[in-house]
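tokens incoming
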């Protein structure tokens, strides 16, 4: 693994993995506390529509998925602002339609025979310099929004009715959080794929939630844990020639199981 650090693709993979890990950690915490996990899952799978359209029209797949996901997030937000009780129906519909659009556009693309498994399960070793710029820009945006409007986001996340009474525009922040979640999902797809993206955004947060007492602490710990999982998964993937996204998620799941076991032993025998 050490000798591989001299290669540009491995350097890009590590930098990209760390950037995405902190984005996923921060936004994952917001997704969990705002009970948006299923929403984020719908956005992740519907982003396949953007991938298919990008392939068909011949522009950047990354940009295509990003734009399609943001549009999907805004659509979901507008549909569910006044109809939260119908959110499952809307998400299921948009999830299916997005993937169907992607499949049709890929089918219509003449002579296209590239393996789409990298989008389903990630391809961190294929992270380019341009991808890193996008990931870095998104991390800066996420950090700015979270730090600048932390109190408002905190209020909305734990008591949206109280936040609304205080004069906070809960609808606007709902759309902002969903849009940032959409962009975070897309950059995470590059690392772990759209099928596994929710795991990297929720497993670190679940662990962080058990050991921190604030939303800010949850975000930071989630980012650090996601980074550790990504680096360990990348090392295993490289050494054993396995799919990187799957290795990262298995490391995360194994860590969650060990953490849960340690917590059980502590509560059962040491208290």
């Amino acid at each position: 693994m050490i000798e591989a650090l001299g290669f540009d693709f491995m350097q890009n993979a590590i930098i990209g993995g760390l950037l995405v890990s902190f984005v996923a950690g921060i936004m994952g915490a917001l997704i969990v506390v705002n009970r948006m996990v299923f929403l984020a899952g719908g956005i992740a799978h519907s982003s396949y529509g953007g991938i298919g359209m990008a392939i068909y029209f011949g522009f950047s797949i990354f940009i295509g998925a990003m734009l399609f996901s943001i549009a999907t997030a805004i659509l979901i937000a507008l549909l569910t602002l006044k109809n939260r009780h119908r959110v499952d129906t809307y998400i299921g519909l948009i999830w299916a339609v997005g993937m169907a659009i992607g499949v049709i556009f890929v089918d219509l693309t003449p002579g296209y025979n590239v393996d789409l498994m990298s989008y389903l399960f990630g391809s961190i070793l294929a992270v380019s310099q341009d991808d890193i710029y996008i990931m870095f820009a998104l991390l800066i945006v996420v950090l700015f929004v979270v730090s600048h409007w932390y109190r408002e986001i905190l209020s909305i996340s734990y008591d949206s009715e109280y936040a609304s009474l205080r004069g906070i525009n809960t609808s606007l922040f709902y759309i902002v959080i969903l849009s940032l979640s959409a962009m975070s999902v897309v950059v995470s797809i590059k690392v772990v794929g759209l099928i596994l993206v929710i795991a990297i955004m929720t497993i670190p947060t679940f662990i962080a939630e058990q050991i921190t007492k604030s939303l800010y602490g949850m975000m930071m710990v989630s980012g650090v844990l996601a980074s550790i999982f990504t680096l360990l998964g990348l090392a295993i993937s490289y050494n054993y020639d396995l799919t990187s996204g799957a290795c990262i998620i298995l490391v995360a799941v194994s860590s969650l199981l060990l953490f849960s076991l340690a917590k059980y032993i502590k509560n059962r025998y040491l208290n």
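note: DSSP finds 13 helices and no strands in the chain.
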